């Protein structure tokens, strides 16, 4: 049986939107997004998570106490049918005001006690042996240059939108922008940090779990801001070394045959060479380096998986 809202008591109809609000909040939290700060995977993110829990549970304690006193006052001093006169009017209470000023001050001092050393530790210079990565934000993709690893021709190993890191190894990131302001954000690993034109910011952390974690630009930077995504692949040291060795290997010297030869010829005579680098074929530096694009798990700034079907669709 369907009950019309018009048949419900007026009080129930007024309270219905209030009852729906908590339900909407609960449903919103069930989106299943993998971009969460609640599952930290680095020392930096662990510290931020600690501060989040500290302030959250402190706020919960304040809420319970304040609302408990409020409910008690409402019940204890509510109007009664036998009341015939206005209650005695009280103007201020110095002792009470001093107490409720001191308590928040003590709570804030406690939060500051834990927060201050974390601020200094996360803003300190990275360890001298940290792996150095130069991050450049573009409209609308991420460029990663490994400053400790070079190609045979002396250029840096460079990837786009997919960053590989060894687990347990500290990595430090110098953040620059090629155009407008961006923001480097990897929720599980310890973002975010602004990426500003003509100014280098720094961020560093040590990953503590193997796996792939997504991130994206967190500062509106133009039409495709929402599609400016990236993946970080945290690997064992052996897997990272194997991946890096593959990245440092130049393309085969022999000429391709069949469709591969047709593709190379098409690429070479098209405008592609003005934007993209492929070692031994082109040196464009506007778009992502495509030398080892086949080894990446994502393309199009993470919008698509790197499958033959999606690659064809993206090129088209």
What does this structure look like?
The protein starts with 9 loop residues before the first helix and ends with a helix. The protein is α+β, with helices and mostly antiparallel strands and 316 residues long. Helix 2 runs antiparallel to helix 3. Helices cover 36% and strands 22% of the residues. The model has no long low-confidence stretch (mean pLDDT 86). It is elongated.
Give the SSE layout.
Blueprint: H1 10-28, H2 43-76, H3 94-123, E1 131-138, E2 141-150, E3 156-160, E4 162-166, E5 170-177, E6 182-185, E7 193-195, E8 201-206, E9 211-217, E10 229-235, H4 237-248, H5 259-268, E11 277-278, E12 282-283, E13 298-299, E14 304-305, H6 308-315
Parallel strand pairs: 1-5, 4-10
Antiparallel strand pairs: 1-2, 2-3, 5-8, 6-7, 6-9, 9-10, 11-12, 13-14
- Please summarize the sheet with the most strands: 5 strands, mixed
Strand content: 15-25%
Task: Give the helix level as a range of percent.
Answer: 25-40%
Overall average pLDDT: 86
Rounded to the nearest angstrom, the distance between the terminal CA atoms is: 54 Å
**Number of contiguous helices:** 6
Number of strands: 14
One letter per element, helices H and strands E, the order comes to HHHEEEEEEEEEEHHEEEEH
Unreliable runs: none
Strand order of the largest sheet: 3-2-1-5-8
Structural class: alpha+beta
Rounded radius of gyration (Å): 28 Å
Form type: elongated
Provide tags for this entry.
316 residues, 6 helices, 36% helix
């Amino acid at each position: 049986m369907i009950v019309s809202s018009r048949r419900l008591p007026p009080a129930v109809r007024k309270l219905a939107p209030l009852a729906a609000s908590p339900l909407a909040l609960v449903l919103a939290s069930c989106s299943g997004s993998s971009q969460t700060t609640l599952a930290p995977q680095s020392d930096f993110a662990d510290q931020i998570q600690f501060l989040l829990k500290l302030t959250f549970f402190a706020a919960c304690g304040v809420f319970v106490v304040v609302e408990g006193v409020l409910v008690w006052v409402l019940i204890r001093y509510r109007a009664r049918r036998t009341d015939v006169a206005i209650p005695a009017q009280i103007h201020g209470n110095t002792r009470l005001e001093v107490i409720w000023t001191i308590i928040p001050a003590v709570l804030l001092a406690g939060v500051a006690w834990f927060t201050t050393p974390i601020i200094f530790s996360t803003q300190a210079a990275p360890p001298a042996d940290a792996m150095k990565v130069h991050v450049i934000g573009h409209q609308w993709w991420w460029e990663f240059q490994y400053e400790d690893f070079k190609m045979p021709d002396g250029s840096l190993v460079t990837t786009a939108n997919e960053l590989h890191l060894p687990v347990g190894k500290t990595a430090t990131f110098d953040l620059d922008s090629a155009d407008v302001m961006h923001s480097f954000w990897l929720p599980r690993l310890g973002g975010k940090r602004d990426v500003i034109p003509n100014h280098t910011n720094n961020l560093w952390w040590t990953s503590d779990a193997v796996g792939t974690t997504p991130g994206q630009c967190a500062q509106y930077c133009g039409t495709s801001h929402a599609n400016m995504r990236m993946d970080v692949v945290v690997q064992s040291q052996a897997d990272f070394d194997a991946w890096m060795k593959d990245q440092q290997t130049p393309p085969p010297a022999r000429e391709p045959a069949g469709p591969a030869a047709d593709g190379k010829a098409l690429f070479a005579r098209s405008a592609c060479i003005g934007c993209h680098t492929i070692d031994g074929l082109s040196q464009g530096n506007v778009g992502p380096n495509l030398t080892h694009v086949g080894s990446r798990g994502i393309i199009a700034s993470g919008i698509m998986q790197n499958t033959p079907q999606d690659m064809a669709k993206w090129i088209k």
